[in-house]
Write the structure tokens for this entry.
Amino acid sequence: MAKKNKTIITCAITGAIHTPTMSDALPYSADDIAHQAIAASEAGASILHLHARHPETGAVSIDTEHFAGFLPRIKQATNAVVNITTGGSMKTSIEDRLAPALKFSPEMCSLNMGSMNFSFHPLSKRYELWKFDWEKDYVENSDSYIFRNTFRDIGTVADKLTPHDVKFEHECYDVGHLYNLKFCVDIGLFKAPIFIQFIFGILGGIGPEVDNLIFMKRTADRLFGDGYRWSVLGAGVAQMPLATTASQMGGHVRVGLEDSLFISRGKLAQNNAEQVCKIRRIVEDLGCEVATPDEAREILALKGGDKVAF
Ligand code: KMH
Ligand code: ZN
């Protein structure tokens, strides 16, 4: 039995927000994604949250071929739980976003629990010269993106992935998303224990204050009782402080270059593993133990690493 105070570290390796100009450390080739994911796992991440990128330009990708470039290598080299995004593009339908998860049938997938503004356009002002043509427009135009995750979209993901016995990382960016999730649980879409990622600090979602974390947690307690597990993702400068607070409150934590490019204020992280090492040190110094992948499987009731299709 996994002990109750074990902390699961998720590492989100590359995501779909940051671009190559913003940090040389952001991985986008299959080699780099695989190497950084393996190193993050060796550093203590038991879940790897994975997006694909175009290997030459670093543009965000939901192409199954691009996932195929790194998934088997990660599986061979680690025992980590692989979590494939279903939110990897703000410009395509949910059916397209689902394709990698359907093909590779991972133990976990992300599932975004509401439609929202999701913007990172303020980042564009920090850069004069861009490495690749697509980056500037992509970042600047994010003030016009609607991240679409309607109830029908959520239902489609649940219907298509339930036969694959996938556990969802329910991405909740605001308190209303918890109520959306409650509605979905009540109509039987998801079975306990559900896993909620409380997300703070995305422009379009709830802000990164500790008060908000307590409010989200209290609301989830009321809605889901002991039928849920939870983790915290703080975007940008909120990453380490909120992860630290969450671990002290009994929650799990998520770090990685998807969520912040920094290791401390104003200092870029050298890679994903550096962030994993830092949060691991904090979690352990403050009296918790980091969960192994098999302990994470037990805590979240996952199907097992031998039941994936890669
Ligand atoms: N980039 C994070 C704020 C997803 O992959 O589905 C949210 C995320 C979305 O991880
Ligand atoms: Zn993601």
In short: The radius of gyration is 18 Å. The first helix runs from residue 30 to 43. DSSP finds eleven helices and 16 strands in the chain. The pocket of zinc ion (ligand 2) is lined by residues 12, 15, 49, 51, 85, 87, 110, 258 (CB under 6 Å).
